[in-house]
Amino acid sequence: MTLDKLTKNRTATITHIRQNSIAPKLVEMGLYPGKRVTLLFKAPMGDPIALDIDGYTLSLRKEEASFVEVD
Fold first, then answer.
1. Which residue of 37, 58, 59, 65 has the fewest CB atoms within a 10 Å radius of its CB?
2. How far apart are CA 44 and CA 67, in angstroms?
3. Can you give the pLDDT at residue 30?
4. pLDDT mean over 61-70
5. Distances from the Cα of 19 to the Cαs of 1, 3, 13, 41, 70, in angstroms?
6. For 14-62, how does the pLDDT look when each residue is reduced to its tens digit (9 = 90+)?
7. pTM above 0.85, yes or no
8. Domains (ranges, CATH) in the chain?
9. Is the Cβ–Cβ distance between 67 and 61 less than 8 Å?
10. Helix (H, G, I), strand (E, B) or coil at 70
11. Contacts of 60 (CB under 8 A, 6+ apart)
């Protein structure tokens, strides 16, 4: 499953970041394999989404979240 498919208040562990032009940026923002994230909310149209990562909130576009695989 990818991060954009996660449901509200669900916690998941990142398993893989798909290689693409923004993969290095996602890692710099704290999204890397083994990291646990919680989906806080999605905007009314589903984009963007807000994640809790170690106590801080990160907002991602749905397209960006689709590159992050979670378990």
1. 59
2. 21
3. 93
4. 94
5. 16, 15, 18, 26, 15
6. 999 999 999 999 999 999 999 999 999 999 888 899 999 999 999 999 9
7. yes
8. 3-70 (2.30.30.90)
9. no
10. strand
11. 3, 48, 49, 51
Cβ(49)–Cβ(60) below 8 Å = yes
Pair of tokens at residue 48:
């963007």
3-state DSSP assignment of residue 39:
strand
Does residue 6 surpass a pLDDT of 90?
A: yes
Q: Which residues contact 12 (CB under 8 A, 6 or more apart)?
A: 1, 3, 6, 36, 37, 38, 39, 70, 71
Find the length of the chain.
71
Q: How many whole angstroms separate alpha carbon 10 and alpha carbon 21?
A: 27
pLDDT reported for residue 46: 81
What lies within 8 Å, CB to CB, of 10 at 6+ separation is 38, 39
